[in-house]
Amino acid sequence: MRLLGIGGSPRRGGNTDLLLAEVLRGASRGAEVKTIILSDLNIAPCQHCDDCLKTGDCTTRDDMQLVYRELEAADRLVLASPLYFMGVTAQLKAMIDRCQALWARKYKLNKPPLGDGRERRGLFISVGGRSKANQFWPALATVKSLFRTLDITYAGELVFPGIDEKGAITKHPDALKQAYLAGQRLVENSPAG
Ligand SMILES: Cc1cc2nc3c(=O)[nH]c(=O)nc-3n(C[C@H](O)[C@H](O)[C@H](O)COP(=O)(O)O)c2cc1C
């Protein structure tokens, strides 16, 4: 089993990175794990050229080509992003928008979006500086829309409000433990949940 973790925060070693690392640590006994940090990559925004509608492939040649390959190879996906103006970061949104090519595979070309029909499951992790517990819904809506498009079963989310300074997540009573356990659960061979 392969698990791909995708980190959307540009603040290296920040709260999102710490949580993502714990999820992957929890998963690492049951899966081969790989992390991609989007701010290390060069991923242009979707230009809506519609080339992908004919082939299901994106003709923009940048690091997204690597991400497509990793998404196809993964059985489990963990997306992680802090809240930026209620949504995911620009780095993650650019990656999500470039998945329009995978939307085209599915809805225009009648092909499996990730190349085969194997069961895939995905988790979303987020933090936000404000303390409002219900502020994550716009980001959740975006991520759920992506997972639905990619035929990835939504396995839930871990979201932590009131986490602002770099490293603040380490002072939360059990966030890192929750992340570790979520990683363990995600690679268990039980039905989605
Ligand atoms: C551009 C920007 C926009 C932000 N927008 C929000 C927001 O809408 N809601 C919120 O709760 N926190 C917001 N924050 C705060 C971050 O979500 C918070 O600092 C978080 O802990 C950063 O996570 P990181 O350490 O993983 O980068 C914003 C921060 C930045 C830099």
Write structural notes for this entry.
This protein has 193 residues and is an alpha/beta fold. It has a single domain, classed as 3-Layer(aba) Sandwich (Rossmann fold). It has helices spanning 15-27, 52-55, 64-73, 90-98, 100-107, 137-149, 175-186, and strands at residues 2-7, 32-37, 76-82, 120-127, 152-160. It has a five-stranded parallel β-sheet, with helices on both faces. Helix 1 (15-27) packs across helix 7 (175-186). The structure holds flavin mononucleotide (FMN).
Supply the key terms.
19% strand, alpha/beta, 193 residues, binds flavin mononucleotide, five-stranded parallel β-sheet
Q: What strand line-up does the widest sheet have? A: 2-1-3-4-5
Query: How many domains, as an integer?
Result: 1
What is the CATH topology? Rossmann fold
Tell me the name of the CATH homologous superfamily. Answer: Flavodoxin domain
Which class best fits the helix and strand makeup?
Answer: alpha/beta
